[in-house]
Amino acid sequence: MAGGHYEIVVKGLLVSTLLRWFEELEVRSDGPGTTTVSGWFVDQAALQGVLNQLGDLGLELSSVRRLPDDQARDVPPRPSPRGR
How far is Cα 11 from Cα 54, in angstroms, rounded to an integer? Predict the structure, then answer.
């Protein structure tokens, strides 16, 4: 998979102390009990790494979608865990 801009919606809120885990991504609260995490992922492994982190935090996945290029924000790419 080539890189792309993705939006991940989860049920639950990220407390401020955990936001540093996602500092390369945009994180916003979308109302009571819903958090959206979005950003550019260089490959499938990078996307899966964030999904795993969110799951490890006990957050329930609501949706994942790839955004069209015209909706992508100017966010640096999330590195692949394989490159670390």
Answer: 10
Q: What is the pLDDT of residues 12-59, one digit of tens each?
A: 888 877 888 888 899 998 888 899 999 999 999 999 999 999 999 999
The DSSP annotation for the chain comes to ---EEEEEEEES---GGGGGGGTTSEEEE-STTEEEEEEEESSHHHHHHHHHHHHHTTPEEEEEEEPPGGG--S-PPBPPGGG-
The CATH architecture assigned to 4-70 reads: 2-Layer Sandwich (3.30)
Q: Note the pTM of the prediction, 2 decimals.
A: 0.79
